[in-house]
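User: Just a sanity check before I run the rest of the batch. Below are the structure tokens for the first item. I only need the designed sequence back.
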């Protein structure tokens, strides 16, 4: 921080530099910035590996870079995409170090290989093709290799203090479903906004009601219990016959009321609460596998990322990796 302040302070003396010196210093500053970006990508790679963004209360690495590190949405996307490609293909780091590929081109290549599901060999081939090329030329090269059309990004922009204009590309299946929705709803005078709002309201209401309905369980036939005497009790693992994974309706309702449909993970350092409301899951604060009870006090709402994060924290990467799909 002191180095940054001193460099900012020294900028007041730039007017006294000769043209040649100013040009040299500007070039040096540019190189420093690019080197700093590469260092940042290496840090982000380790943050990603440790899921440190989860510990800080963020549900994704992009959210961590955008909100916690203060980058714009597009800057955060570029850095996360470039880091992930650099982690997958080490040659990317060499190209960035030599400045034969820019951060923007790296991010575009990362997006391309993800969409096209390119192998590492194909990715390396494309990396060589776009190296030492201007961004526009790199884009043309990637377009010539394209097999899957790139979808235009969805856009949501405020058009007034209370109105947001949403734009997206609708595929044939979407149009068929929308026509079916119109037939089911009736009301030919309704706008697209009216129809989608009504449909969304129905889905959200049903989803909320579902969280408070008991799950149907299949009866399990058990053999008659045989009373055993003088059998030592193991305290390494709790006896499961007195517990159940089933979450009672009252517990689910209490959890939803407390969480208000928002992930309940809170960073112990910054006290920041995760803002995710996506696909919340019921989780045992004290793990069920370690004897945790299914009570109002022990059940909480977590987003999928924080649920996985807490599982890794409790049981370790080696064990939890067996339950991950990729």
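Assistant: Here's the designed sequence for the first item:
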């Amino acid at each position: 921080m002191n180095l940054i302040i001193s460099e900012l302070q020294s900028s007041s003396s730039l007017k006294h530099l000769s043209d040649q010196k100013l040009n040299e210093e500007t070039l040096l500053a540019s190189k420093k910035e690019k080197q700093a970006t590469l260092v940042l990508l290496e840090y982000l790679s380790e943050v990603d590996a440790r899921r440190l963004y989860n510990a800080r209360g963020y549900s994704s690495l992009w959210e961590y870079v955008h909100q916690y590190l203060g980058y714009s949405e597009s800057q955060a996307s570029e850095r996360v995409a470039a880091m992930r490609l650099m982690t997958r293909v080490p040659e990317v780091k060499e190209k960035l170090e030599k400045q034969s590929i820019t951060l923007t081109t790296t991010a575009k290549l990362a997006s391309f290989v993800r969409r096209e599901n390119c192998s590492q060999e194909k990715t390396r081939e494309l990396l060589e093709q776009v190296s030492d090329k201007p961004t526009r030329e790199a884009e043309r090269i990637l377009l010539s290799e394209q097999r899957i059309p790139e979808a235009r990004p969805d856009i949501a922009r405020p058009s007034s203090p209370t109105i947001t204009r949403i734009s997206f590309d609708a595929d044939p299946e979407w149009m068929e479903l929308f026509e079916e929705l119109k037939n089911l709803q009736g009301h030919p005078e309704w706008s697209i906004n009216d129809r989608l709002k009504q449909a969304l309201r129905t889905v959200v209401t049903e989803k909320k009601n579902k969280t408070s309905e008991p799950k149907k369980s299949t009866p399990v036939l058990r053999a008659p219990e045989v009373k055993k005497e003088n059998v030592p009790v193991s305290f390494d693992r709790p006896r499961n016959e007195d517990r159940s994974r089933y979450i009672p309706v009252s517990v689910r309702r209490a959890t939803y009321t407390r969480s208000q449909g928002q992930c309940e993970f809170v960073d112990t350092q910054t006290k920041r609460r995760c803002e995710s409301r996506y696909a919340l899951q019921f989780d045992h604060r004290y793990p069920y596998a370690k004897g945790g009870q299914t009570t109002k006090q022990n059940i909480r709402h977590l987003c999928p990322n924080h649920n996985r994060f807490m599982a890794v924290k409790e049981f370790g990467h080696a064990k939890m990796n067996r339950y991950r799909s990729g």
